[in-house]
Specification:
Elements: E1 2-7, H1 11-26, E2 30-32, E3 40-45, H2 50-64, E4 71-76, H3 77-81, E5 93-95, E6 111-113, E7 133-137, E8 139-140, H4 151-155, E9 159-160, H5 163-171, E10 179-183, E11 191-192, E12 195-196, H6 198-205, E13 211-214, H7 224-231, E14 239-241, H8 249-255, H9 261-274, E15 279-286, H10 293-306, E16 310-315, H11 323-327, H12 333-357, E17 360-369, E18 372-376, E19 382-385, E20 394-403, E21 406-411
Parallel strand pairs: 1-2, 1-3, 3-4, 4-5, 5-6, 7-10, 10-13, 14-15, 15-16, 19-21
Antiparallel strand pairs: 8-9, 11-12, 17-18, 17-20, 18-19, 20-21
Length: about 425
């Protein structure tokens, strides 16, 4: 029996899907992670926006074009949020975000199984890694309850994996894996013994000799103690994805973000004190319902002042069930689209400036595209370099100029 595991959404979903693939292979199934002909499809859905849910439903129809008689199993955030949206689509089995591994024991069953969201970390998924970069899940859930976000209601409260369990998984990674990315719904809230412990975890993982990278984090984590821990972690990659969302204090308050722009700027300055060449990327939501033209102009000014290395821009998406959807009137799509384009132009300018400021870097080669070997520096510049390098090789390059979606480089003499 051939099963295709299809994933929408975040790196946490990707990790969980990879873990299901690993387990299915151990049970003797033929497994793939692409949209192709199969006997059954497991679709791991996303609900971060209305569009993500639409794509989750659409994936069922796309899969059935390859095999109209295939069984379809649906799980994840979209099915946790609104299981009824998958009714009438001939879905054999429906799970939510909890107990995902249990779907593998019920492939011959039908029905809907939405388990109570756990209060402890479900440490029963293990993902076999074969590429140069491994994503390791360390945390699940979120306690922030930003007014625009539905994820805490679908994933539950924040809970952390044990450091020993994480170490065990990293110790089993093959030699071909050169970089580990720690992922979670709110990595900043990783704890051990009831205390924040992300710096401690990185220290513990340093002994494995693999590059260590963090996924998205919150401003609240940034202080002298944490940054000193990172500075003494030899294999840490100085790339901080520090979520901003808005550069206007009144909008941040309406979003229920727990910082001001002044606090955020202090965090950025502190990072650059310890890591002068750090890549600092961010998320920006444009067109939040209360965002005026003046508020948006202030966000543009603040983003330019901070000089992020790259922006991820999201037009506000109304999510039923969130505080923002109940309290505020949505802005027009035209306004959101215009603001997104303005922010994108600024993002291109800042990315070009950041690349131009960097003269060299150590690049982990991850793929070959046309005549180039392509990979990332520690501070997250995508580099294109010509040469006969192997995937998984780390090479020192001279950064010449912005190129495509990264930088043109040559091997450093």
């Amino acid at each position: 029996m051939k099963i295709s595991v299809l994933t929408l959404g975040c790196k946490v979903n990707k990790y969980e899907s990879d873990a299901l693939i690993f387990e299915l292979k151990n049970r003797g199934f033929e497994v793939c992670d692409s949209l192709e002909e199969a006997d059954a499809y497991i679709i791991n859905t996303c609900a971060v926006t209305n569009e993500a849910e639409r794509k989750s439903r659409q994936m069922i129809e796309r899969a059935r074009k390859f095999n109209a008689n295939a069984k379809v199993f649906v799980l994840g955030c979209a099915s946790q949020n609104r299981p009824a949206q998958f009714e009438g689509k001939n879905v054999s089995l429906l799970f939510g975000t909890a107990g995902k591994k249990q779907i593998l024991d019920e492939l011959e069953q039908t029905g809907t199984h939405l388990f109570e969201l756990p209060t402890d970390y479900e440490d029963n998924l293990f993902s076999a890694q074969t590429l140069t970069r491994a994503y390791i899940k360390i945390q699940d859930g979120c306690n922030n309850f930003c007014t625009y976000c539905i994820i805490p209601y679908l994933r539950g409260r924040s809970r952390s994996r044990s450091i020993q369990s994480i170490e065990n998984e990293v110790s089993l990674l093959p030699e071909s894996v050169k970089e580990v990315v720690l992922v979670g719904i709110d990595v900043s809230d990783f704890q051990a013994d009831g205390k924040k412990a992300l710096g401690q975890l990185l220290h513990r993982l340093d002994k494995f000799g693999k590059r260590l990278r963090l996924s998205s984090m919150e401003d609240s984590l940034v202080d002298e103690e944490f940054l000193k821990q990172l500075s003494s972690t030899q294999n840490f990659c100085p790339h901080f994805h520090l979520s901003l969302q808005s550069g206007c204090d009144s909008v941040l308050k309406k979003m229920n973000r727990h910082y001001t722009t002044a606090q955020f700027e202090r965090s950025v300055n502190l990072i650059r004190k310890h890591f002068p060449s750090a890549g600092i990327t961010t998320d920006v939501i444009v067109g939040f319902p209360t965002e005026t033209e003046e508020d948006f102009a202030n966000t543009l000014k603040f983003v330019e002042k901070v000089k992020f290395s790259q922006l991820h821009i999201f037009p506000y998406s109304k999510r039923d069930g969130t505080a923002a959807a109940k309290l505020y009137q949505d802005l027009s799509g035209q306004v959101k689209s215009r603001r997104a384009k303005q922010m994108e132009e600024l993002g291109k300018k800042l990315k070009t400036e950041f690349i131009s400021q960097n003269k060299s870097g150590m690049v982990l080669i991850e793929e070959k595209i046309d005549d180039f070997c392509v990979g990332y520096t520690k501070n997250y510049i995508r580099c294109f370099v010509k040469g006969n390098f192997e995937v998984g090789e780390v090479v020192e390059v001279e950064i010449l100029k912005p190129f495509k979606d990264g930088a043109l480089c040559k091997l450093k003499a």
